Records
---
Amino acid sequence: GLTNATTYYFTVEAINANGSSGASNEASATPSATSTTPGVPTGLSATGTNTQVLLTWTPPASNGGSAITGYNVYVGTTTGGESTTPVNTSPLGATAATYTATGLTNATTYYFTVEAINVVGSSGASNEASATPANTTPATLDGKGYWLVGSDGGVFSFGDANYYGSTGAMTLNKPIVAAMATPDGKGYWLVGSDGGVFSFGDANYYGSTGAMTLNKPIVAAMATPDGKGYWLVASDGGVFSFGDASYYGSTGAMTLNKPIVGVA
């Protein structure tokens, strides 16, 4: 019949025929409600890039009465077929809200769920999100070279492709998910999942969505034929045009069965 969140102090005395002993040492405790597992993470979304999928989610509204200690991510190749073993080798941090699954196979659709953890155990699974990794490697004009781009924006040039710079040494707000070469192959743009655009060589900057609040992350980009503009495309099919790139429509207002993964 005690009150939760109130501290109580106790002593004990022994009794015999002659009376009571002196008081024991004092001990105290604060009753609290019984903790449960956390609520379910919400808003899980997945964005495919080259052999990788970027996941983002919103933490549970309730921690179950005990602090969240981490998150586990589960993956499968069929809907509802996620493994019972987390893809992350150890729980993610208590404040984690993103995860990049690596080493995936391009053109294969992967399905993910996330669970929150506290001292009691794991939450139920989040909503399921899926994405299909795809190769977005830009090539030189004559097809005799190409650039490979890491999620940190590190750029590796091969064949007759020249190196013009990278974001590898920068601290990015979001990972790089797309790259575009200029028409003459003497420059390129790198694009983050927040729509931040980084231009190198003879690539000019025409704008970005980096300062906008997007409904879904950017997953693809395409330059105009003359290289004087580009389109950024989100996983919900929202299209953002810059420079001389014209807007022709989008699926941003539609309910899609699966997320958008590319633009052509």
Note: Residues 53 and 101 are 5 Å apart (CA to CA).
---
Amino acid sequence: MCLYMIKMTIGQLAKKTQIHIQTIRYYESIRLLPKPKTKESGYREFSEEFIDKINFIKNAKAVGFTLSEIMSIIKIDECQDIYELASNKLIEVKIKINKGKELEKKLNLLLKKCPNKGSAEDCTIIKSFKKISMKRKIEIFTAGCPVCEEQVEKIKEAACPSCDVVTLNVSSDKDALSKAKKYNVKSLPAVAIDGKLAECCISRGIDLNVLKSLGLGVAG
């Protein structure tokens, strides 16, 4: 007997493919699955071909394709076009992964600052949710020399897009020099984040890893 001559009810098909009956009906409604033949009695009969079609959909969904994308894949005749679609999906996945990593950093920062004791009202995580989002202010003190400028560029690259980055040249700007004295800057270049001189600038000089741990690259 031909494999596809075996007939099933929609309930039997749902059981074999481990999906809900409503899902099968939805796939039919959006034309992802063809309509099965209907017997004279009014009952619909599904061949085992439908198992292959549903497994195809499940496998494509498992690697991230949406139902609309799967519909496009079904209609494509050339492998090159399918390759392009899969390549675009990979780029999309990588973007989501990078966003996930940024969220991980933000959550780790919240947990690091949280005292993990006291009332919910005093919880720093709750307070961070309530506060109005503000731009993180990054002040870079420089003497304008080539060595300083190289460090300044690295700091600017590491800063987040929403950060308010200001370069203060103490050799040509009296206000910058006055502010540097206020922060007790001893060597240049130096960085202040949200009004506080970075620890590394007090003891040994610019350290990007330390600056990042203090919030460089993270929105306020």
Note: The CA atoms of residues 117 and 182 lie 35 Å apart.
---
Amino acid sequence: MIRPAQVGAALLAFETERLWVRPLQIEDAALFCGLYSDPETMRFIGVALSPERANRNFLNALAASAKSPPDSVFGAIVGKGAQRPIGVCAIVQFDAARTRAEVGMMLGAEARARGYSKECLAGLVTRTFAMFPIDEVWVQYSSGHSAAERLVISIAFARGMDIDPADGSPAMRVWSVRRPSWGSINAVNNQGKDNVERDRISGKDGAGCATPSCGD
């Protein structure tokens, strides 16, 4: 079973050299809503949400994480230096038939271009494989988001088939990594010290998507 009942939001917790990730909490409402209602942050994701819509999505994200088994699992990214949340991440779109899950994250403006995206994504992939009996972790992002492409290439993702939205919006690039190729060396070496891309990987609007992306 891809979502065992004992796995919940409390287990989406890990640490990297400069970051902690902990379960999303009600106190993170301002962070979450600020990211999803900011036009610059949402530039490669979709239309910025109204404060009301962003708040609904936040509550949906909390509810999805609290289910047993969870529909999606959301976390807050905390900078060790700042001692405060700087972004959100998620594990979403569990696919039992293909034994895979999507991951994603969003970082606030002050946390971008500091290598945090590479550090967080590597840790998130490692944690996802540890939490769930899946064979593949994947991400999706707008075809215009060159920084996201450099990011996934840098941590050994392989490109899959693009998704062409029916509404005529830009194609979504799909990249993934499989469990056998994801060795422990990635968790050690992919800390992102020299990675200065703008940190956004995106998914879809809503609580069941990664923003990397709730629902990127």
Note: The chain is about 25% helix and 25% strand.
---
Amino acid sequence: MHRSSTGSRRSDRTGVTLLELIIVITLLSLLTLGMAMTIGRRSIRWTEPADGCFPSRRTVGAQRVLDQQVAGLMPVLFSCSGSAGTGMLFFDGAPDSMRMVSSFTLEEASRGYPRILEYAAGSGNGLRVRLVVNESITTRGRDR
């Protein structure tokens, strides 16, 4: 140790020890982790709906397919054997069923042949509603 001109002791070793540095880094990382967890919780609460219900992946996928099938609706005209030259649009809708021709199918997406789609809504268990779709290939005048 050296004595300065003022008479106080001064150490040759100034600076921070490794232990002090490790303690400071640990405290800063814990503080950062706490802030990140708080921000994460707030962002999750902000994005979830008020009732806390999230649609399942299965429901979202079914909704996407239904949207694409309805968007692929084709205005197909057909004539009955009794009518002379007048065509009718192939679409039938009821409160619990629907029939139409669409270019989007479950099997081939939008790359396949047009298909006749028949939707039927039925009651499931409790509050659930079941939607069933049947697809049949359209050919000239007859189904395959």
Note: The chain has a mean pLDDT of 77.
